[in-house]
Design a protein that fits this description.
Length: 225
């Protein structure tokens, strides 16, 4: 049903999630991130509350592993859930409950976790993680989307995927990237890549417009001189 990567950029301290699924609007339900705190993918039979709960726990100083342990102890339906967490220090944790769907797997590396369920091959998360870790100096958004595309190329889900998204936070109280393809008949990851290619050159301009509109560049729309 879903494959994802949750990661921290050691170079910029950004935190983010990239995710794709056969179900609609996967990023809206599964991806959570909070600047200076962590990032979480809550997937499989999804409970979006678990992502928020994990971030709340990490905001108190708990590591990703400690936050996951508390959620596992308190969630009444935890065996239906698959979770991947990274904290602000790059600590990682993951869990796949006994009722996770189909072929599933999760793997962690420095500052990143890749996980999936209903996979065509258990090597999919490994390929996602390898791709993300292979280019530590590259743009964080590029790395996340490349990792997602690598998961698809490695087999992805058992069936076709139809939605994808990317969520990234850094040193601001709002996401710097929150892009979603909530439904695409054939190629949501390719559509997400195209959207990112359009948005990436404008990202910093949107940040400036939020923080200091008088210093922002021209809006580039009809009617704006």
């Amino acid at each position: 049903m879903t494959f994802s990567i949750v990661a921290r950029c050691a170079r910029t301290q950004s935190l983010g999630v990239a995710v794709s699924s056969s179900s609609p609007a996967v990023a809206a339900r599964c991806a959570r991130a909070r600047a200076g705190v962590g990032a979480v993918a809550s997937q499989n039979i999804t409970d979006p509350r678990l992502g928020t709960e994990a971030l709340d726990l990490m905001a108190t100083g708990r590591t990703a592993a400690a936050a996951l342990a508390e959620i596992r102890a308190c969630s009444p339906h935890i065996e239906f859930r698959q979770l991947a967490l990274v904290d602000s220090s790059g600590g990682t944790a993951f869990f796949s409950g006994a009722r996770t769907l189909g072929r599933h797997h999760a793997v962690a590396g420095p500052g990143a976790v890749a996980a999936g369920n209903l996979l065509a091959d258990t090597k999919v998360p490994e390929r996602i993680l390898e791709t993300f870790l292979a280019a530590p100096e590259a743009d964080f958004g590029d790395r996340l989307i490349a990792a997602l595309a690598a998961g698809l190329a490695a087999g992805g889900e058992e069936g076709p995927v139809h939605s994808a998204g990317i969520l990234v936070v850094r040193d601001l109280p709002f996401p710097i990237i929150d892009l979603r393809v909530d439904w695409h008949d054939t190629a949501p990851i390719a559509a997400l890549e195209k959207t990112w290619a359009i948005y990436k050159p404008q990202l910093e301009a949107y940040v400036t417009r939020a923080l200091d509109p008088a210093a922002s560049p021209a809006y580039g729309v009809p009617g704006n001189p």
